[in-house]
Structures are given as structure tokens and as C-alpha cells.
Amino acid sequence: MKDKALLRGQILGHLKLYSDLGVRYVGSSAAGKRSSAQKSQKRELAIPPEPKAAAPHPAPRIRVNTSMFDEAPSGEESLGAILGDLNDCRRCKLAPGRTNLVFGSGNPHAELMFVGEAPGADEDAQGLPFVGRAGHLLTRIIEAIGMRRDEVYICNILKCRPPGNRNPELDEIASCEQFLFRQIAAIKPKVICALGAFGAQTLLKTTETIGRLRGHLMDYRGAKFMATFHPAYLLRNPNEKRKVWEDMQIIRDYLLSLRNSDKS
Ligand code: SF4
Fold it and tell me: Is the pLDDT of residue 67 over 70?
């Protein structure tokens, strides 16, 4: 009985998210009666399978803990070594204003890596990336493609919070981006997903709008790159959730195709 109630709650939670993301079809006995155009649209909006693990997903507990990053093939840099190099970093003018340096959290061997712009107030207070409302929405987006938050890796371009959440400045990016690039080299993700226009433009060294950058995979540092809207932007503009859902489906399908080709 308890299990049924838990399952029912989980299903309702997923349906709410799919609805938020603009998904209109969640399977129906009437599907066979739809026109071919509707069927095609349904395929486009196919719902990912439920994640296998039915248990609740605990939030990652990493703050500044190097012990979990100690696996790296010889000759390659580990996340722990990068964090050790950052140490009490004073390389740019953001250092004096931070409460915590926000290095990143998640699976050090993740296939999928999310990169935001910089920590906000919640992240600065907790030393973890993407917490608070935007972080909660990111967790739901990850779960919508059948993954758990602790399966992916999440970090920012800047590791310290800009005052008043202003945009990062060029000298700050120049000082800090090397650490992100080293994180990418250590993790070797299959897909890097930049969250927000500023992060995508900074990584791609472009002034193209997020509207033109999103929606397709690009080659980037040995991985595929997807730009999409920042969860904080989605909280203010919920109508854009549908576009993020489309971007996430592209990522999910690409990762599935890699896994299938590994099996064959
Ligand atoms: S933002 Fe980066 S470079 Fe600047 S102090 Fe923080 S860790 Fe160092």
C-alpha cells in the first residue's frame, strides 16, 4: 500500500514536470486513431522511460572534498588535483567577496556535464552548484531524461560569486576558465550542456544569441556541446520550458545512440 502511494506520487511528479516542459502526449489508447501528423508529433515528444531506481535521489553531498576525486588514470589530472591547485584561490577580484568556493559536484566520470555561469547567493552559502529553486528545476530536468542528478556533473565557469549576481567580467573569466577546461579534460564527458546565454557565449567565444546556439549539438573539446536556457530563466519564462525539453531529448537520444553502438 505504502509502495503504491510512493509510486503514485512519483508518477504524478513526473507528469507535472512533463506538463511544465510542454509535453502534451503521455501515451494513450487513442493513439492508434490519431492522424499521421499527430503521430509524428507524438514521436517527437516521446516520453523517456521512467528511471529504473524508484528510490528518492539524495542530493550530492560534496562541498570541498577531494577524496572522491582521487581516481584518475596515471598521467591524467584528477578533479582532486585541480581542486588542490585552486585551494584558497585569490587569482581574481572575486575572492574577497565569496563565502565558499563552488568547485562542482556529481559523478567524476559523468557522460553528461552541465556548465552554468557563476554561483549565486545560495550556491555561495552552501558551496554547491545549482541549489535553490533553479537547482531544483535542473534536477527535475535531469530526471526527465531518465538520469539522476548524481550521475551527471554540474559546475560553473566561475567558481566564486560575482557581487549582486552581476555578469562575470572578462578578467575574471580569463583567470578562472582554465579550471573549467581542466575539469572537462579530467571528466571527459560525452556531452557538455551550457546553461544560459552567457555561459554558452563564453565557452564558444561567440556573441550569437542563445536562440541560435541552442537546439543542436556542436563539437567542443572532444565532446558534443549543447546550449540551452538557464533554469533560473525558465522560472521567469515558463513558456520556454518546451525548448529546453527539446534540447534535452537531443542529448538523451545522442547518449542512447552511443550506448547502443557500444553494445553492438
Ligand atoms: S573566480 Fe576563479 S579565479 Fe577568481 S578567485 Fe574564484 S576560483 Fe579564483
Answer: no
**Could you give the CA distance from residue 15 to residue 47 in angstroms, rounded to a whole number?**
10
The minimum-distance atom of ligand 1 relative to the CA of 86 is 7
Asked if 202 and 173 touch (Cβ cutoff 8 Å), the reply is yes
Report the alpha-carbon distance of residue 100 to residue 64 in Å, rounded.
9
**Residues 107-148: tens digit of each pLDDT:** 999 999 999 999 999 999 999 999 999 999 999 999 999 999
Q: How far is the CA of 254 from the centre of ligand 1 (A)?
A: 33
Digit-coded pLDDT (tens) for 180-203: 999 999 999 999 999 999 999 999
Q: What's the gap in Å between 157 CA and the centre of ligand 1?
A: 10
What residues flank ligand 1, with Cβ below 6 Å?
86, 89-92, 94-95, 101, 158-160, 172, 175-176
Residue 221: other Cβ atoms inside 10 A: 13
Measured in angstroms, how far is the CA atom of residue 177 from the centroid of ligand 1?
9
b/e sequence 121-156, b meaning 16+ C-beta within 10 Å: ebbbebbbbbbbebbebbbbbbbbbbbbbbbbbbbb
Sheet holding 105-106, edge to edge: 105-106, 153-156, 112-116, 191-195, 223-228, 218-220
